[in-house]
Specification:
The complex is a heterodimer of chains A (92) and B (413).
Chain A: H1 2-9, H2 17-49, H3 51-79
Chain B: H1 2-21, H2 30-33, E1 39-45, H3 52-61, E2 69-76, H4 82-92, E3 96-101, H5 110-119, E4 125-128, E5 134-135, H6 139-144, E6 152-161, H7 168-190, E7 202-205, H8 206-212, H9 222-232, E8 236-247, H10 253-280, H11 286-296, H12 301-316, H13 322-340, H14 343-354, H15 367-391
Parallel strand pairs in B: 1-2, 1-4, 2-3, 6-8
Antiparallel strand pairs in B: 4-7, 5-8, 6-7
Helix pairs in contact in B: 1-7, 1-14, 3-4, 7-14, 9-10, 10-11, 10-15, 12-13
Classes of the chains: A mainly alpha (92), B alpha/beta (413).
Chain lengths: 92, 413
């Protein structure tokens, strides 16, 4: 899902293709790292707290993934050059 | 939920494509530029002494010909100096008129105030501004020119938060506005779908408003209600993205809750009233019907996501079976569609990027808290609406948003 959205949306923005591919690759690395941490947490949690922790993990899994995907996505857009430099000026 | 995901994705794509293909041919046709009819500006105001002077001063600075402008301030049972300040401007400028509603007839909500102002209007086009707003100098030209097309019954401009740097709440509200106007509204207008009148920074053709009977005083979301009545009557609503107006956003969670609760309750009521009409309308194309129904049901989405989670918890304990497996799959899909697929987040961040708001991108992840905050808001609104329909009691108590004039310091910076 992250790859699909990043390629279809972020790739349309201004900026070097190499930077976009770099961000895409980095995003996948971050995602793999985060998910391995989550999975490890699940194994330890289930071992320590029992099956109840599995329920908690399954419910919160989308939220956990959202945290890294949205953060990485928004920071990637911050890195890509803006189409215009909009100033927050209110004309007087 | 998946349909909403696809919808937001299409909106974001549409805006990106439009941004890339914009050329000099997008300049305004001369037919539109020559169109400058008589305009009445309605400004409902109740206890707005901190901000009304700022807006009225701005009215005197607008570039629209003053002989074609008529401003009516509806002083709606104010208990502060709103009426006094408005009268001062009325004495100095002949095109500004003040309508006072006392406590006997006033204070019954924005719709009632707008209707009383409308009765005294004389413009061919009616434009509305809330008292805490601060428009561009040429905003009337930009909004009014769209009415050169006889099919256009209403217009909506873009709302930008004036007091964004105030605190984290105003910054997050500003982000929501960016997503809602820079991407959502613009995409819906570009794709010929249902662009929405937001209650302010917009207007109507006078005869259209007369034929619709003005604002419905029995509903809280009078803007959504008018939007659909315009479309059902066979007219179009145009979103004008370059017609910007600055608003003083809510700056604390309590005010945020009150405002969003009113929106959710009113919007859900509109869904109850208009869904069938939209579905059966002969004046709407299929894509407009589909988008209209999705727009009407948008405040139910947090409830569906919550339901999906509750169902998911119970499914854990039901063992494994094919049906449970299928139902269980719906839990993460639902949540992803609401939050996990971050359709609103993608819209917001793309909108911020197109606006050149680099530093604002850092706040996008915090929007999860406002989305989660909206879950109990929508839940309460739904339960209250349900109770009012079953018990046949009035749920439309207008609780106005207080404006403290904190946006004044950001003008002229």
């Amino acid at each position: 899902m992250f790859n699909f959205l990043f390629v279809s949306l972020a790739f349309q923005l201004t900026g070097k293709l190499s930077v976009k591919f770099g961000l895409l690759a980095l995003g996948n690395v971050v995602g793999l790292f985060c998910n391995s941490v989550f999975y490890s947490l699940n194994i330890v949690g289930v071992d320590y707290f029992g099956e109840v922790f599995r329920v908690f993990y399954v419910i919160s899994y989308p939220l956990l993934n959202m945290m890294w995907i949205v953060t990485f996505w928004s920071l990637s857009l911050a890195i890509l050059p803006n189409p215009q430099n909009m100033k927050m000026e209110v004309e007087s | 939920m998946i349909i909403y995901l696809i919808r937001h994705y299409i909106f974001t794509l549409a805006v990106l494509r439009r941004t890339k293909t914009k050329t000099a041919l997008d300049s305004v046709p001369s037919l539109k530029l020559d169109y400058s009819p008589m305009v009445t500006v309605l400004i409902p105001a109740r206890d707005e002494e901190k901000v009304i002077g700022r807006l009225l001063q701005r009215m005197t600075e607008l570039t629209y010909p003053k002989e074609k402008m008529h401003v009516i301030v509806i002083n709606d049972a104010s208990s502060d100096k709103t009426g006094v300040i408005a009268e001062e401007y009325s004495r100095r400028y002949s095109f500004i008129q003040v309508l006072h509603r006392d406590k006997m007839i006033g204070g019954k909500g924005k719709s009632a105030a707008m209707n009383s102002g409308f009765q005294r209007s004389r413009g061919e086009i009616i434009i509305c501004f809330d008292a805490d707003y601060y428009p561009q100098k040429d905003i009337l030209e930009k909004l009014v020119r769209e009415f050169a097309d006889r099919q256009v019954g209403a217009v909506q401009g873009r709302v930008v938060v004036l007091n964004e740097p105030e605190n984290i709440v105003t910054r997050l509200v500003a982000l929501e506005r960016i997503g809602g106007y820079r991407v959502d509204q613009e995409a819906r207008d570009n794709l010929g779908l249902i662009a929405q009148f937001g209650g302010t920074v917009g207007g109507f053709r006078r005869d259209v408003l007369e034929s619709l009977g003005g604002w419905d005083e029995s509903i809280l979301a009078e803007d959504t209600d008018l939007t659909f009545r315009v479309y059902l009557a066979g007219y179009k609503l145009r979103y004008v993205g370059d017609a910007e107006c600055y608003e003083e956003a809510v700056d604390n969670l309590k005010a945020y809750w009150t405002q969003r609760y009113r929106w959710a309750l009113g919007h859900m009521d509109c869904c109850y009233r208009h869904s069938v009409n939209v579905f059966l309308s002969k004046n709407l194309r299929t894509k407009e019907k589909l988008d209209g129904l999705l727009l009407l049901n948008v405040y139910f989405m947090p409830l569906i996501a919550l339901l999906a989670f509750v169902v998911g918890v119970f499914l854990i304990f039901f063992g494994s079976s094919f049906i449970v497996g299928v139902l269980w799959f719906s839990v993460p899909v639902s949540f992803y569609s609401f939050v996990g697929n971050f359709a609103p987040f993608f819209e917001v961040s793309i909108g911020a990027h197109l606006d050149g708001r680099t530093r604002t991108q850092w706040l996008v992840p915090l929007l999860i808290f406002t989305f989660l905050f909206n879950v109990p808001i929508c839940m309460k609104a739904f339960l209250n609406l349900l109770a009012s329909k079953i018990l046949r009691r009035d749920h439309n108590v207008w609780v106005k948003t207080r404006h403290l004039g904190n946006g004044n310091r950001y003008i002229g910076n």
